[in-house]
Amino acid sequence: MLINAANRLVVLHRAIQPASGFAPTLGLRSSFKIQSRNLATVAVSADQSSSTSRTSSLPSISNIEAAWKEMSPQEQESIFHHLEGLQKKDWTQLSLDEKKASYWVSFGPHGPREPLHAPGSGVKLLLGITGCISAAIALFVLIRSASPELPRTMTKEWQEAATQRAIDQKMDPFTGASAQGEKAKTFVQSK
């Protein structure tokens, strides 16, 4: 953008300076009119040449969705600025490809709006979680099947006998097994 502005200034400066190095002999007003006409034609031709050179150097916008990721950041920026200029026009004059490209560059799934999970990753996630849970259950069953039997003190008969012995010895008469009423506790834990 700055290069185009600098080129315009150089072209305008050359158009203002007389070719022979001295001012024309016409009056001040007539020389101003001639110079302003020259400025207008030079400015228009500079605008036309810069817009044609800009559009010729731009990649095609017809299938921007597919080509966007392969473009360099400079190409992406030039297309963005080109489409930004097109959006200032009347939208009824824009082609369908230009409208689609403008919308996609502004709101498409690229850059910060790129989805975190690719399409189809939900199935992979579900299969992974199911596999992990299945492996955990299999490991639990394997460990339980390889574990030794419970010790004899964990049987219900042993725990009832331990409770009877505590009552016979009058252990903890206030809150233990030999307590009266609802406060009585037993040693039975197994079912």
TrEMBL record:
Predominant localisation class: mitochondrion
Membrane topology reported for the UniProt record: Single-pass membrane protein
Pathway entry: Energy metabolism; oxidative phosphorylation
Single Gene Ontology MF annotation: oxidoreductase activity
Subcellular location field: Mitochondrion inner membrane
Matches recorded under Pfam families: COX4
Presence of keyword Hydrolase: no
UniProt keyword Membrane present: yes
Transmembrane segments: 125-143
Gene Ontology CC terms: mitochondrial inner membrane; respiratory chain complex IV
Keywords associated with the record: Membrane, Mitochondrion, Mitochondrion inner membrane, Oxidoreductase, Transit peptide, Transmembrane, Transmembrane helix
Taxonomy, superkingdom: Eukaryota
GO BP terms, alphabetized: mitochondrial electron transport, cytochrome c to oxygen
Family membership: Belongs to the cytochrome c oxidase IV family.
Name under which the protein is recorded: Cytochrome c oxidase subunit IV
